[in-house]
Amino acid sequence: MSPSAQPDPGFWEGRSVVVTGGAGFLGTPVMRMLGELGAEAKATRSAEFDLREKAAATAALDGAEIVIHLAANVGGIGYNRRNPAPLAYDNLTMGTNVFEACRQLGVSKLVAACSVCAYPLETPVPFREETIWDGYPEPSNAPYGLAKKMLLVLSDTYRRQYGFDSCAPVIANLYGPNDNFDLEDSHVIPAMVRKYVEAAADGHRDVTLWGSGRPSREFLYVDDAARGLLLCAERLDVSEPVNLGVGRETKIRDLAAAVAAAAGFEGETVWDASMPDGQMKRGLDVSRARELTGFEAEVPLEDGVEWTVEWFREHELAAV
Question: Which one of the listed residues 79, 119, 144, 175 is annotated catalytic?
Answer without folding.
Answer: 144
